[in-house]
Write a structure and sequence with these properties.
Helices cover 71% and strands 0% of the residues. The protein is an all-alpha fold. The chain has one domain. The chain is globular.
Amino acid sequence: MTDAVHDHATGRAPGAAYSANLALRFLLELAALAALAYWGVHAGQSLLGDLALGLGAPLLAAAVWGRFAAPMSARRLHGAGLVVVQLGVLGAGAIALAAAGHPLPGAVFAALVIVNTVLLHLGQGEPSP
């Protein structure tokens, strides 16, 4: 793996639990994009609206993530700013599920995001870029 997944404090590769949390984070990112697309195609008032929201919402989320939260981004935020962007994008996925008529999967998704974020940022620290 790249330097982005090495422990910041020690320079060593992270343990299995941390690597599993990084893999879960990636899956949560993909699920958030899918949830935003799902919401979008059900939220419009017309076929054109469905397409615009179904494509636009995940594209906007991906652009924000890529600019401010992606590990290799030149403009990657750190600390609280990074957590706010990550929770904003991933939280939008949870809200999208609930708004599309699936509140229980939305709540489960939100809980996974919170637990994953706590484990990544408080338990092991954030990976270095």
